[in-house]
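Protein in question quoted for reference:
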Amino acid sequence: MPEPPILFGGDPHRNFAPILRACSALSPGTLILLGDCDCPEPLADILAPAIRFGWEVRWILGNHDTETAAAFDNLTGHPGDLGLRVVTVGGVRIAGLPGVFKPRVWDPKEGPASYHTRTDFQAGLRPDEPWRGGLPLFHRDTVFPEDFDRLAALRCDVLVTHEAPSSHPHGFAVIDGLAQACGARLIVHGHHHQSYEAVLANGIRVRGLGLAEPWLLAWPRLP
């Protein structure tokens, strides 16, 4: 029997129709969303046809998923958070780096981070800044160096990110290094809404996805 498909979905920005069509054309497998869902209703309701058909849904946060409490809750209320962990799907180990770099915390192109951990950052917040007793909503998708520490200690075949590696003009070389530390052979990213393929200087392949672009991972070989 063939392995269940692994389907990636580029930033939907509320338009899930192309992704749902791709799911309906395949046998059930695992769908991985690359962030910026900006869900107008709970993700389980939006993807109900695919979920009823048997699809398992995984996701990472994008910057638009923390713009409003509704967008955040509608996404994070669904199980399947791939952020900062590894899941094995049909023998393929897939890790997720959610969110984006924000200058108040860390812009790798400008130098060292101002805060290494969320605990450090929270200690310096003004009294009016915490949200629901923790990080401000705006920073729930912020990438911290501790995220790199956590993922670098894991092993994966595919690294799923919202931000891009250096293959994109607005990408970050530190993601190249993270993928190498994880042992990843492929990075799949969203955020910039550009569909392309590339190979990094360290030999790791990259697949960037366009708006709501579905992309099926070739089985059993990675690109």
User: Anything to note?
Assistant: Residues 6-216 form a domain with the Purple Acid Phosphatase; chain A, domain 2 fold (CATH 3.60.21.10). Residues 173-182 form the longest helix (10 residues). The two ends are 21 Å apart (CA to CA).
